[in-house]
Amino acid sequence: MFHLCCGSKQLLDPDKVDVVHRLDKEKCLTLEEFRLIKIHMSIHIWRLALHVKVRQRVIATAITYFRRVYTSLSYRNLVRKSMSEYDPRLVAPTCLYLASKVEESTVQARLLVFYIKKMCNYSSLFPISSSDEKYRFEIKDILEMEMKVLEALDYYLVVFHPYRPLLQLLQDANITDLTQVAWGLVNDTYKMDLILIHPPHMIALACIYIACVLKDKDLTSWFEELRADMNIVKNIAMEILEFFEYCRPDPKNNILLPEDRINAALNKVAAKP
């Protein structure tokens, strides 16, 4: 068969992932707003990455780092960081900068700063006026935050992704024609916390399962031969489908989020106590 490395020691209890930090609660940040910020900033990392032209793996690693920062990493004895202390609008590009170095596809900080400013000028989610320069980040801001992010991650930068097992599994099942659909679904899982909770190969299987349903392919016998826990596979698949119900894509497959609510949430964590 083939070897699938899952990095199981990294996996977390779902109940410990979606938790609002005490300091953020004091600013009245709700769980739904916390989730919206994570989704929005994951998409922001994606868009920023398209500008600086990095590989898909860099984007996935950056988003994983971003989500780890705001999660209690019990296997590293680390306490989650608050969005009030670690501004997500700065943490997000910093994670992309860090991931680009880890994945040997380095992006210069000045290039990130250039595109952040360019994107800010066209986004109401990064409000900038002549009197408010708060989110016009400079190179030194990213470099300083990089050290804080490294500390928050306890310098543990290893990430196991579903992409490699996905390709192995598709080839094993002789359904490489579903690669594009399944790969796209894996990309979408990074808008959720699945990478923190489930083994990468199980996420890959869930995406293959959905792709088979969408393309009307029956792989029941193949799944049985794998002896994978189909309850887990189907549960992950349901989480993915529920996400699309929560954030319905537009005709161009872009995730639509309520800008006014995201703005309100970001303003809460940005406000000084």
Automatic annotation (TrEMBL):
Residues 43-151, 164-242 form the Cyclin-like domain. It holds the Pfam family Cyclin_N. GO terms for molecular function: cyclin-dependent protein serine/threonine kinase regulator activity. The lineage of its organism: Eukaryota, Viridiplantae, Streptophyta, Embryophyta, Tracheophyta. PANTHER family: CYCLIN (PTHR10026). Keywords: Cyclin. Belongs to the cyclin family. It comes from Zingiber officinale. This is Cyclin-like domain-containing protein. InterPro entries: Cyclin-like_dom, Cyclin-like_sf, Cyclin/Ssn8, Cyclin_N. SUPFAM superfamilies: Cyclin-like. Coiled coil: none annotated. Gene3D superfamilies: Cyclin-like. GO terms for biological process: regulation of transcription by RNA polymerase II.
